[in-house]
Predict the structure.
Amino acid sequence: MVNVAILGFGVVGSGVAEVLFTNETHIDRKAGGPIRLKYILDVRDFPDSPFAGKVVHDFSVIENDPEVSIVVETIGGARAALDFTRRALAAGKSVVTSNKELVAEHGCELLKLAAEKGVSYLFEASVGGGIPIIRPLNQCLAANEIEEICGILNGTTNYILTRMIRAGLSFDAALKEAQANGYAEADPTADIEGHDACRKICILASLAFGRHIYPRQVPTEGIVAVTLADVAYADSCGKKIKLLGRAIRQDDGKVCAYVAPHLVDGGDPLAGVEDVFNAITVKGNAIGEVMFYGRGAGKLPTASAVVADVIDAARHRDEKKRVFWAEGGEDVTASSAGLESAWYVRAEGTAEGIRAAFPGCTLLARADAPEGEFALLTGSMTRSTLDARLAGLAVRSAFRVLD
Amino acid sequence: MVNVAILGFGVVGSGVAEVLFTNETHIDRKAGGPIRLKYILDVRDFPDSPFAGKVVHDFSVIENDPEVSIVVETIGGARAALDFTRRALAAGKSVVTSNKELVAEHGCELLKLAAEKGVSYLFEASVGGGIPIIRPLNQCLAANEIEEICGILNGTTNYILTRMIRAGLSFDAALKEAQANGYAEADPTADIEGHDACRKICILASLAFGRHIYPRQVPTEGIVAVTLADVAYADSCGKKIKLLGRAIRQDDGKVCAYVAPHLVDGGDPLAGVEDVFNAITVKGNAIGEVMFYGRGAGKLPTASAVVADVIDAARHRDEKKRVFWAEGGEDVTASSAGLESAWYVRAEGTAEGIRAAFPGCTLLARADAPEGEFALLTGSMTRSTLDARLAGLAVRSAFRVLD
């Protein structure tokens, strides 16, 4: 018998309780023995919940109960969640989480603590919701030197971009619709400014390349600046605008990681990823390119990933987990300034000015373009070369084109 | 130090040697210690290979060497491969394979033998080449009751269909091109008649549903009957023809598994899977739908999956593996005859005959259709209902439409 405590009974936490209850027989068979929910920690009570009798308000009840061997942390954030995770690991309990902020900021410390205590710190649910990506990256692709990870990592922004592309909604209108549908929060900053995608690419890159990459090391641009004009120009050349998190291994071993809108060719599998779906492509030196696709968020998909980790922790109670990465540092990352790519540029100016800056370029066209608006795709160049070319032009948008 | 022997030095076997050698440092770090290739078993010698010194011709050398703890079986087929796998497991060695025929026909017996001996029998490479699917299905989706698996499981047929759709080649011309490009074998029977896809859906279904499903229990139809006329009619309604392997859990717990061409809607992620790529979608009761995509064959992608299993076997030498399913039986599977779906039908006859059989139906159109050819999409019905309706018509093609 393995006893579990859930910290935080919000959307994901209550989903974990529901999956444990609904699929109990199946889960017990997979785990090789019964897994039982013993406590739910929350500041609130839930008198109408079937789990009301399990609610406690004091973490030390869980911390000091030797029967609890697995703690599910679905509080979110990096304050109480950090304190409770440290204390649970220190007390010799495995911790399973969906908390991307905590893993992105403190993963290295918490993995080290777990290893010292001979327990697990698992976070499959922190990236891609229910999509299996952490374990495949760590185990199935273990024979590969990973070369690049590239993904649509945030469902909210992908929904907004899809509605702009498909229905011609403005960014503001698409955001309001996403909020009305429950796909965006009242304060959508973390999604639309790219911070959520940034945390996720940090976790994937740390795992793939072996050293912690912190969000502050990853230049992050959201989708606030994407306009319907950009969507139309992208469409005119068979491309779609997608917010991508990327981590690319350089020849010197450093990792170039960033989050930004990109133009993606219509034939690329990522272009077909719509609405709130996520997809992550991984390139390895043996495997070539593989892609993982599914719902990147949602109560039950995310809970499903958490429970898979609970089963894993239950089966391997006495084994140190192999998920591990070393401390980071300024020597881990390379600036994206040195990364060459083609660029999509929209600017205002004169035809002569554009032709002088980009000799021989082919201009893009869209219906109802205002006088003096120009858009084009450049050849491959770094950001600084691009900026030098653009000097003197009034640049409205500049996004990389995915190779 | 873990010593490995490779049985069969063909495309995949030599790829395994190459990946072990090329990514040695990385693999040793992942495995927690050195993994070394000690023997290669083949009937041939390879005097020009850098691995020439490791070649042996007698399996008993490997069987009787206590230093060899992992055997990689890349012989293929179910004769020598079966004999050597049994003997290796009986000798207490873990076996890793890419041999889908052996797993589909004898997986249950070999998994049981491995469990008795406390070693592993692993076969990530048997389905989807390098795409991680076996381990995610077994571990990451462990919290789910799996409801359906559906996949493009054979790269050769997907290449042929892609060339028919994209370039308007006939089946025969597309097959010849595939052979010229090395995507189809001189004898393409196992691919084009669906047997390869059948073996793969058997492996996935056995794993997902817990009991062995044998190829003889899975009705299998290949792509030989697919014509350019069908491709054109599918295109006229925004669909593409794909060869799918499917396994669907019925309400009574039985599994309906079959392989057949389907019309897939253009908006379905499977429709965008082209050329030799494979993709597998899995539906679970918590996770919803996830998809795994990548190269389904090829030397290095397949070798990459084999080596990931070798690393796993090396790390868990003393642990019984959890991949397991029970013996099958006639009570495991349900006939696909009871499965309702919409159908695409192409027939010859009179407009009156078609309208009598399918009142109110909308006919599909294509350029250059001969007089008396009709095509349509039906409502949802079983095969026997369809056949009853079609009595008296000269049916040329009848394929299911994927929901």
In short: The mean pLDDT of chain B is 94. Chain B touches chain A through 52 residues (CB under 8 Å).
